[in-house]
Design goal:
The structure is a homotetramer. With about 160 residues, chain A is α+β, with helices and mostly antiparallel strands. Chain A contains three helices and five strands.
Chain lengths: ~160, ~160, ~160, ~160
């Protein structure tokens, strides 16, 4: 039922870049079934996506400073096992290389033993201040993509 | 990029059952980009799903009263156009007929002119109090499914 | 323990203006204790405050259109009885007359039988685009205050 | 306008116990005014209260394991300066000694330079499984209170 590879890509392309954050489930994130409400995963996922973007110099603020917004165009979550109150989970985000101007990320949420609880992906588009879709990556991201292709990206 | 039919089904099966709710975007649901934050859609969608379930007598509470929980196993959202503060949108939920014990719903969010802003779907599984997956629909839902096949379901 | 009059005022001043909205507690607003999580009341209260402001022509958007923001400076909630899933409650907001440029509102949440479940109040200040505190009501609010004093305000 | 001491107490009583947590403002916690929405402070405050309770062995789960719930009876927030996206703040919780069975906490949110951004307090009551108010501290908390009086409490 759940694909393990949401984004298929040629092995010739640079490998995905990844970063993990850790987050503990809050009291108010638990629903009447005693598990984390499914709607809170978007925030868990965003925590990892934001951390990855910031560490690469292509975060929300970086785009915004260049007049570009990066709204989420698609979000997909496969809830494999529930998350519980007070437990801490790893959220791992991976950014996939794309020539087209879009941010393709996938996500894995793992418990403390490394078991996969959730898989997810998101797609973000780039728009300018007039709400027009950008078809090419903005100038300021060029050095980043060059480094990615050369295998010299540093994840802070 | 966006499929219009997430669930394909034989024309021989009973047609989906549907219900709409209306909801106005709140001040605190707007993100720094000036549009509704993508994570709030899960709640919009749930409003319609809950209303549909309740109107059919197979809501959260109905299942719960029979010892069954219906956790969300999969959620997918295609964000086509942004939602804005203070605007009221229609959220239309449709439940698809399934012999297997799972709730397959799709969702359409429309603006006041009837334009489609969002498409989405969710899949829910049924589990008992020992967290075991139910493979068959619980006894209490039988009359509902019979009525659905006979075309006599009443949506309150 | 709970005061019933948060804002004391001279009987010579115009009486408070009020408006009610109704809201049903959502599945995801229930906490592990089986009652609405205390942090969600701010949104319930805001629903009534926004409705009252809009009905009087002095809502967020009205102020914003005149370059003024109205941030909440103080919020106080007395939780008297818990709110439950699926129940619908009335949230009544009252705006108190004030010569000083601040919005003093109190709130009462009632169940279907009219029993008081919650009392609360909020204080909002007015600031301009340079984040400076406004000491006087903006020009555009003058007709409203004149009508209030004359007893001719219409609540839409 | 803002009191700095919400709970007055005799100097003869044991001093408050305190603990801080740190939290970074998320993208979706920012409202259309560009500052953290006032309703999210309840969660910031709860983070510090939960951490303090857990560190003292009198957290939600500790009470729950003894058949006691500790609902919030009163919440008060004084918003002194706004919180901004991506900034990290210290949230300091203090528990005040009380012979009566109630948890009186105050809170201070500070920015990275130590400036006070927010002051708040909460009062929690103790109820048993039949929703009856507890007038005395449960047995399991006795050693904790004895240690507090003796000045030997360890905050983990």
């Amino acid at each position: 039922m759940t694909k393990t590879n949401y984004f298929e890509q040629s092995p010739a392309l640079p490998a995905p870049l990844e970063k993990s954050v850790f987050r503990t489930v809050r009291f108010n994130e638990i629903d009447p079934m005693g598990i984390m409400w499914h709607g809170h995963y978007a925030s868990f996922i965003e925590d990892a996506r934001v951390a990855l973007g910031n560490s690469l110099g292509i975060g929300y603020q970086d785009f915004y400073d260049h007049g570009v917004a990066i709204p989420v165009r698609q979000l997909h979550v496969d809830y494999l096992s529930p998350l519980y109150y007070g437990k801490t989970y790893e959220i791992k985000a991976r950014l996939f290389y794309s020539e087209a101007a879009r941010l393709n990320c996938d996500f894995t949420i793992l418990d403390e033993s490394g078991r996969v609880m959730t898989r997810a992906y998101s797609v973000q588009l780039l728009i300018d201040k007039e709400q027009r879709l950008l078809l090419e990556w903005p100038e300021f991201t060029r050095p980043f993509f060059r480094a990615w292709k050369e295998g010299t990206v540093k994840i802070k």
